[in-house]
Amino acid sequence: MYQNFSAIIGGLASVFSLFTFVKSGLMKRDLELAGIEYLKEIIQKSEELKQKEKEILEKKDYLTKKEKEIRELEIKKTEFEFLIQKSSMVLFLKDQHNRIQEQIDKIINDKELIKLCNQLDKLELKINALNAEINLNPNIDLLKTVMKRIKQLDNSVLKVRVANSISQGVISFFEDENYK
């Protein structure tokens, strides 16, 4: 059986060999077809390369856009950090403001301070009233001249003596019966 099978295959091989031998070699048409196929492959490969190039450019543009977005996000991050710092500063300043306001409220509600301020106001009213009366006195020009001279003198002893004389004059003026 093996021999029969080998004989059949050998016969077929002989027939095919004769057929290819009888058939003439490559023809011009066969070469043209092979060249056309080769050109089609080159064109296809060229188109594939163009497509790949386009994809690479798109990826590059995509990366450029992503890089731009990343830079914009970094800028926004920096701006946001600065905003947070400003907000923290506002909170700190508000806290200081509230503490100072509390201290002011305590001072305003301090009865002793209120008494002292009232006394100060009364003293200022008395001083202003006395200054007004002094300014109405006919000897005011003399008093002003003496005061100017005191400021000009360098000798402290003279200043003390003149000041004592003036204060005695002012005291005697207020003790005068016409003033009461």
Provide a concise account of the structure shown.
The chain is mostly helical and 180 residues long. The chain has helices at 2-22, 28-108, 111-136, 140-152, 156-175.
Question: What is the number of domains?
Answer: 2
Which residue ranges are poorly predicted, with pLDDT under 50 across at least 5 consecutive positions? none
**DSSP helical segment count:** 5
Series of secondary-structure elements, N-terminal to C-terminal: HHHHH
**How many strand segments?**
0
Q: Structural class of the helix and strand makeup?
A: mainly alpha
- Average pLDDT rating: 77
Question: Could you tell me the radius of gyration in angstroms?
Answer: 59 Å
Shape: rod-shaped
Describe this structure in words.
The chain has 180 residues and is an all-alpha fold. Helix content is 89%, strand content 0%. It has 5 helices and no strands. The protein has helices at residues 2-22, 28-108, 111-136, 140-152, 156-175. The radius of gyration is 59 Å and the shape is rod-shaped.
Topology record:
Layout: H1 2-22, H2 28-108, H3 111-136, H4 140-152, H5 156-175
List keywords for this structure.
rod-shaped, 2 domains, mainly alpha
